[in-house]
Automatic annotation (TrEMBL):
Source species taxonomy: Bacteria, Pseudomonadati, Pseudomonadota, Gammaproteobacteria, Pseudomonadales
Protein name per UniProt: ArsR family transcriptional regulator
SUPFAM superfamilies assigned: Winged helix' DNA-binding domain
Organism: Pseudomonas chlororaphis
Short name of any one Pfam family annotated for the protein: HTH_5
NCBIfam families in the record: HTH_metalloreg (NF033788)
One GO process term, biological-process aspect: response to lead ion
GO molecular function: cadmium ion sensor activity; DNA binding; DNA-binding transcription factor activity; lead ion binding
Length: 250
């Protein structure tokens, strides 16, 4: 009986995620921000009533949660496991093709958030450069930092000792679903994204997980890390025109 209930639960969640509009809503929430049903309706390209029905289904299955502030209701992913499951499905969903050809929209393929860290072409290049320079070193199934690596991150105001003491993994490879290669995940990846946002190296999009690289960000990536992004730059201007306040839940 217990096994049957487990199977039923898996099939219900899979069916909920499989609906295209719900998938778009869930992916839009992977940046860790909460959004209204109106915003999510626009993202999913459905009517307000249809969006409400989809969100009610997702809430019933514990895939999203609702936060009420006055007259406003904001939706966010229930927890990080939902985001991790979505990322895994994105990788699996493209594995059927014998030859991999990225079909991700340009502005998402270049740079986006992967829950709380950076993904896309820019993040993969940064990951590769950190390894190539010897700043990031393999440590079991994750990564550690060399002495010079600790210095690089200390110069950004990132206390690696504090990050290492957290309950989550310090640093680890996270398979990028648009590139099929790893980018940097874990506490270190999350801290690096926050620095990039705070210093305005990247700008966040309103209605997707896209990140736009600014002129200063391009310079910093080259000067600090030696990352050449000239061949695949997604201008921040295109993202900046779409920016608007969002609610970040802590």
């Amino acid at each position: 009986m217990e096994a049957e209930l487990h199977d039923l639960g898996v099939s219900q969640v899979a069916a909920a995620i499989a609906e295209p509009a719900r998938t778009r809503m869930l992916c839009a929430l992977m940046d860790g921000h909460a959004r209204t049903s109106t915003e999510l309706a626009s993202i999913a390209d459905v009517s307000a009533s249809t969006a409400s029905a989809h969100l009610a289904k997702l809430k019933d299955l514990a895939l999203v949660r609702v936060h009420v502030q006055g007259r406003h209701r904001y939706y966010s992913l229930a927890d990080k496991r939902v985001a991790q499951a979505l990322e895994a499905l994105m990788v699996i969903g493209q594995s059927a093709a014998p030859t991999f050809t990225p079909r991700t929209p340009d502005r998402l393929q270049f740079a986006r958030t992967c829950y709380d860290h950076m993904a896309g072409t820019l993040a993969v290049r940064l990951h590769d450069r950190l390894l190539e320079a010897g700043w990031l070193v393999a440590a079991g199934q994750g990564y550690g930092l060399s002495e010079s690596g600790e210095q690089i991150f200390a110069e950004l105001g990132i206390d690696v000792q504090v990050l290492a003491a957290q309950r989550r993994r310090f640093a680890c490879p996270c398979l990028d679903w648009s590139m099929r290669r790893p980018h940097l995940g874990g506490a270190l990846g999350a801290a690096l994204l926050q620095v990039a946002i705070k210093r305005k190296w990247v700008l966040q999009d309103l209605d997707s997980r896209a990140l736009g690289l600014t002129a200063s960000g391009r310079k910093e990536m080259a000067a600090r890390f030696g990352v050449d992004v000239e061949q695949a730059v997604a201008p921040a201007d295109a993202v900046a025109s779409r920016l608007a306040p969002t609610v970040e839940l802590r």
